[in-house]
Design the sequence.
């Protein structure tokens, strides 16, 4: 099992949903980067989502720094942050024992690690591991703000609910200032709540589509062949539990249109090279092209639903019925925006540091 992401600034996640704590070790950061705990707390609160449509598990999510921070700044040595699990209830997992919960990681974990895996609440494969991801993202966010790069995510659709009102199409003039409104991009409306309640009342859950935008990235970021900007963003994004698809720019929509309309033509303005449109989502040849980077994600419906489902007893292979109990998010998507923003931030921080060297973050370009 390898649990590290990145090449230059690396992130290793540790912990289990029902263990004593979850956390992250971030290595490769420059020294002297401010660690903005107020910003971190804000991002952690965003991840909690709206209590009306989130899990009943209530975690304080206080971030404790074990190493790598001194006088509010990074020291340059590995930064270890830890978030204690305070509101754990094992009972539902004792009741279901070794029954595999459908569309959870239970069966693959058992196939690979046998009875050694801690599957309570999904163990290491749980959405709980996104708490340290968000905390780490806040460190990256501060680093990126210093060089004029910002990211935000919003919900584009939920179940069959779609509409321009949830949309923030990044046009070529979308500035970093416009993106400095994560609350606008990440709040969800009354209509979304109603849809979640309606599904929940029927014992169902909902998925949807998110859109993430990264602004201010200079052209030429991303390694040209394997560790491309698309490849690395997809790599990090698929680490987020419940993400089943990613598309850049106009994505699958490009396939039933024709070039040249799908091409982003170039022009020059005050000596700067720009693009008239952004069908490619700000990426050409695996590298940023100076346009905002735009990607959408497919988020699946929460697999835990309180209805009887067919399954198998992992240890005996016996077919059984399971009724998944416990505390769950009726629609994971309502909490996923700050997580997707965090992985986008970590990815571009890593690629920027790969291109310019780690210390450029704390210096003027
Ligand atoms: C913030 C967050 C919270 C989640 N909460 C739940 C939950 O309460 N119940 C659940 O069944 N799945 C939840 N998930 C999704 C599961 O963790 C995920 O579907 C499962 O581990 C299987 O992984 P996969 O969907 O990536 O294949 C959550 C995911 C995230 C990102």
Sequence:
């Amino acid at each position: 099992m390898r649990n590290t992401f990145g090449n230059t600034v690396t992130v290793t996640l540790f912990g289990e949903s029902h263990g004593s704590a979850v956390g992250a070790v971030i290595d490769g950061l420059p020294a002297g980067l401010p660690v903005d705990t107020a910003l971190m707390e804000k991002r952690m609160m965003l991840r909690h989502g709206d209590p009306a449509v989130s899990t009943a598990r209530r975690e304080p999510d206080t971030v404790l720094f074990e190493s790598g921070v001194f006088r509010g700044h990074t020291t340059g040595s590995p930064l270890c942050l830890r978030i204690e699990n305070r509101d754990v209830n094992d009972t539902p997992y004792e009741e279901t024992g070794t029954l595999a919960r459908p569309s959870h990681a239970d069966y693959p974990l058992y196939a690979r690690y046998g009875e050694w895996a801690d599957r309570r609440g999904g163990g290491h494969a749980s959405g709980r591991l996104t708490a340290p991801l968000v905390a780490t993202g806040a460190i990256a966010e501060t680093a990126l703000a210093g060089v004029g790069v910002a990211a935000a995510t919003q919900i584009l659709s939920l179940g069959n609910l779609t509409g321009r009102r949830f949309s923030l199409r990044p046009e070529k003039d979308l500035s970093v200032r416009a993106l400095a409104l994560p609350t606008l991009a990440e709040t969800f409306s009354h209509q979304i709540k109603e849809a979640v309640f309606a599904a929940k009342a029927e014992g169902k859950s909902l998925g949807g589509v998110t859109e993430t935008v990264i602004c201010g990235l200079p052209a030429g970021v991303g390694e040209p062949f394997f560790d491309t900007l698309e490849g690395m963003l997809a790599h990090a994004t698929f680490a987020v539990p419940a993400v089943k698809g990613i598309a850049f720019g106009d994505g699958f929509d490009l396939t039933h249109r024709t070039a040249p309309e799908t091409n982003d033509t170039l022009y020059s303005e005050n000596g700067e090279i720009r693009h008239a449109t952004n069908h490619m989502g700000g990426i050409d040849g695996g590298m940023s092209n100076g346009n905002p980077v735009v990607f959408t994600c497919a988020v699946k419906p929460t697999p835990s639903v309180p209805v009887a489902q067919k399954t198998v007893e992992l240890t005996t292979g016996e077919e059984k019925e399971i009724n998944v109990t416990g505390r769950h998010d009726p629609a994971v998507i309502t909490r996923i925006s700050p997580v997707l923003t965090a992985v986008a931030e970590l990815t571009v921080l890593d690629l920027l540091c790969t291109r310019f060297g780690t210390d450029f973050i704390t210096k003027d370009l």
In short: Residues 55, 104-105, 122, 125-127, 130, 240-242, 300, 302-304, 328-329, 332, 335-336, 339 surround flavin mononucleotide (CB under 6 Å). Confidence is low (pLDDT under 50) at residues 164-187.
